[in-house]
Amino acid sequence: MRRIVHFMHVSLDGFVADPAGGMDWIHVDDEIFDYAGARTAQGDTALYGRKTFAMMEAYWPTAADQPNASKHDREHSAWYNKVSKVVLSRTMKEAPARTRIVSGNLAAEIGALKSTAGAEIVMFGSPGAGQSLMREGLIDDLWLFVNPILLGKGLPLFDGSQGRVPLTLIESKPLRSGVVCLHYEKA
């Protein structure tokens, strides 16, 4: 059974975006890219909500081709271009090559995807899609990058609809920036 591994930046008080949807408070640097990239490389499928997919698709296919491309841009662009992609959306009608749209029964469709042969399914951001998958019990691992900031209000990581979900802490990794990565598995 394939696992869904969800990567998400979150504020210390549990928000993934400020009230206007802004994420300018998220800290990223080479240490975070290298740490997350080692796990990302284990996946052969990327899973996104529609909005996150649109952001990713606008940047990653050609990021490595830019004259000032960083090591992370080159590595993640290569990964992004080789993996299969799945987008959760009720409104998206067409998808680029190697991309599948899931708009119906998440439990059945994503459950079937998890039962196919392959490596991990990696999910980036996509808070609404993440909440939907949590409600269905489909996320196996959470990699939470807890940023040292209190937002006070905004878009919460969890909306309460998932109910009680016991988790096991696998690793806690403090980074030089003050960000702490918490890796949890569903117990």
Brief digest:
The protein is α/β, with parallel strands linked by helices and 187 residues long.
Written account of the structure:
By secondary structure, the chain is of the alpha/beta class. The protein has one domain: Dihydrofolate Reductase, subunit A (3-Layer(aba) Sandwich). It is built from 5 helices and 10 strands. The chain has an 8-stranded mixed sheet, sandwiched between helices. The chain has a two-stranded antiparallel sheet with strand order 2-8. β9 and β10 form a beta hairpin. α1 runs parallel beside α3. The longest helix has 12 residues. The chain is globular.
Output the keywords.
5 helices; 187 residues; 10 strands; globular; two-stranded antiparallel ribbon; eight-stranded mixed β-sheet
